[in-house]
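Task 17 of the worksheet. Students: predict the tertiary structure of the chain below and write it out as structure tokens. Keep your answer in the requested format; marks are given for formatting as well as content.
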Amino acid sequence: MDRETALNILNSIENNGAFSNLAVNDALKKADGEGGAFVTRMVYGVLENQIYLDYYLSKFLRDPIEKVKKNSLNILRMALYQILFMDSVPNYAAVSESVDLAKKTGVAQAPFVNGVLRSVLRDIEAGSKRVKLPNPEKLPVKYLSVKYSFPKWLVKYMLDDYGFDFTENYLKSANQVPPLTIRVNSLRTTKEVLSKRLKELGFEVVEGSHSEKALNIKGSGLFRTEPFAEGLFAVQDESSMLAVEALDPKPGETVIDLCAAPGGKTLYAAELMENNGKIIACDIYENKTGLIKDSADRNGITIIETMTADATKFRPEFEGAADKVICDVPCSGLGVVRRKPEIKYTKTAQDIKDMCRIQFAILKNAARYVKQGGRIVYSTCTISRLENEGVIRHFLSKPENACFKVEKMKQLTPFEDGVDGFFICSLVKENK
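Model answer:
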């Protein structure tokens, strides 16, 4: 695992739309230890700080940064990230290794890469005179955009929703490394037993802050352990667990999960139901429903029926069939940027508007599927008010939904709650 691996991942994300978490995980399967840790930090570090790195580099380029070849630009970004953020890498090594990488992957660009990085080092030795952040009072949007590497449109969108302090705290938290959180499979073990086994294997284990089933884990090779193979736990952020706990599924009930993949909420609902009842797990992609079934088998869960279905399309056979409905709808993903930093560069304001239409269509169908006296949990992994409170307000404004009442509504954030940015709203369908 080395710089070339990190470069290939960054190029794949930028040129092919690869997802950072999947690309990094695929690379890590081939290696372990320090090499994997270096690649992970390099990829996420560059993505998290890309706008700032480009702003910095632009001060040392003759032409606009848009004209730099992508391969060379990613090499420069990697080198600058090492120089500015990684004390463990000497500056001379960051430069020489980057020049060698340029020679290996694009020979003609090596002198260019060397020249730019040498200029950067000379400026740093002179006291970093060329690069100054925009004035936060005169140019707040540009300041936040550059400092935290978020597109200006998204910074303005956040400022309009939440104001400066909340926005800056959110942007800062979105660039921090999230914990690896697992959910104890109570059908097969207890938190105490699992914690003891993982500690014996060398992992650092800390209890979660919000859910009694949550454990935060530090250490490598977790998914190659016997506890994982035995289905004693599943990876799930606490915010996602709280959404299922808000649903409060009971043994013997019928639950429909309309957008179930990758299946974390589905499995947790089954555990809370003590594997007694029925869960219909739907997803639009057939291959993803297969993954849910595989996870259910590994975790010893037998009450889940998977179905390939578009949640925006009404299914008559579901009408009035569910005691509880999970609506974990597709969204902009702004709450999980710290796990998938490329999100902030790929989403647009129009994407958010388009998402709202999909979200409302799914919630509208869910309202017809749930029985009287039943409950819907509407959740997203975003902090966009338009997708969250906005969709709920629109739903409740319709006369046909007058029977629904908001039971609980909560916006979770990384900097306030220590979990992924998540919106949870439980709606009860009152008896007429």
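Marker's comment: The chain is about 50% helix and 15% strand. The first helix runs from residue 3 to 16.
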